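Lab channel / #folding
Pinned by the channel admin:
"Please post every new chain as: sequence first, then the structure tokens as a reply. Keep commentary short and put observations after the output so the thread stays searchable."

First post following the new format, from NK:
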Amino acid sequence: MDFQQSLIATVHDYSLGNLNAIAFNQELKQRPTALLIPCLMEEFSRPALRLIRDTLSSLTELSSLVIALSADSADDVNAAEAFFAEMPFPVHVHWTNGPAVKDILTSMEQHGLDLTGPPGKGWAVWQGLGVACQHAEVIGLFDADIRTFGSGYPERMLRPLLDPSHGMAYVKAFYSRLSLETQALQGRATRLFVGPLLTSLEQIFGPLPYLRYLQTFRYPLAGEFAFTRDLAMNLRIPSDWGLEMGLLSEVYRHVAPSRIAQVDLGLFDHKHKSLGQQPNEGLQRMASEIFCTVLRSLMEHEGSVVSMDQLPTLEVLYRRVGEDRVRQFGLDSAINRLPYDRHGEELAVHRFSKLLRPGLTALMASPIAHQLPSWSRLHSCNPSFASELALAGRADRSASLHRTRARRPRRPNCSTVPSPARGRSTSSAAA
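Reply from TO:
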């Protein structure tokens, strides 16, 4: 691994294995720290989540683990709680799509806020942050399908935030995406779409600060990141496949680059998404939404927009840069003796290129994205909303009780705050 630095701090993996579980647990005592895992019920039948659970069980000084769970029934939520019952720290299994949660979210329509979806990872992350931020000063997020999860993942990603003297507010992971079965390169959305797209946009607009910022991240689509509570409370959360790129835009809006770091987690593998047969399927749908997110962020931060007159140039540039990247990844794979499907990779580039025109057309027709409001804004409407949402997400609560609480009329900027005892009761559903 190299030792180069650029706009944001890069924490390299020098392959020395300098991990220390005892020292890390002592560092966790410095700042209350929570981990957040958005999760579908189907993950509980796969080995990845069991590996994550067993690895995290060594973090005895972790303040809490929040599982933002999409489930069909309270029995599923109870099963999830039982799955994490032996952890040495509080676990809050939050039922994101439960009836009581939906009632609580719907109640905010009286303030002109639509919090009911669309359901997905962004929606789950947003709810989980509301729960985690009540008691933690540092929050880290991991997906539930990481098949290579090891003790180095949380240690390396959280440590830059645990010592305030580092001055960091946001940490993003990067890694080598390799299939455990075939050892082939994965991460096509990053390698074959986002990278060539950003290079093409730079050729059109020049080295804009926001484009430079995005290009500094070695894996901008990484779903593993951590931040301080004051930052997490002020981020608007995208609710589509543009979550990761949208969050980078929000971080750019709130944080100086000197307070951002990226950390190498080494080898990484999780579920692989197919390319999809249609533009609204698989990686094609993901790429379409990422494209709109990037262009929308350019409007917001730079006042720049790709016009329909510039679109042919972008299409030509993207196709050329994408094909160049295929050749480069082919060389990288050959020298490392990795299997590589050059024809399949070029087909992916060609399919991605066909998404640019309909994507720009859709963006021009609807330039405002659906974003879930920041938790600081929600607190100004209803200071007790986060604690009520956490209570509603517990499977052992009566739905009728929550409906009564949700419909209680409230006024913006009311002075009511949750009592300390009530706040403590939401920190764990497994205690």
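NK: Strands lie at 9-11, 33-40, 64-70, 91-95, 138-141, 170-177, 225-228, 237-238, 260-268, 371-372.
TO: also worth noting, The chain has a mean pLDDT of 91.
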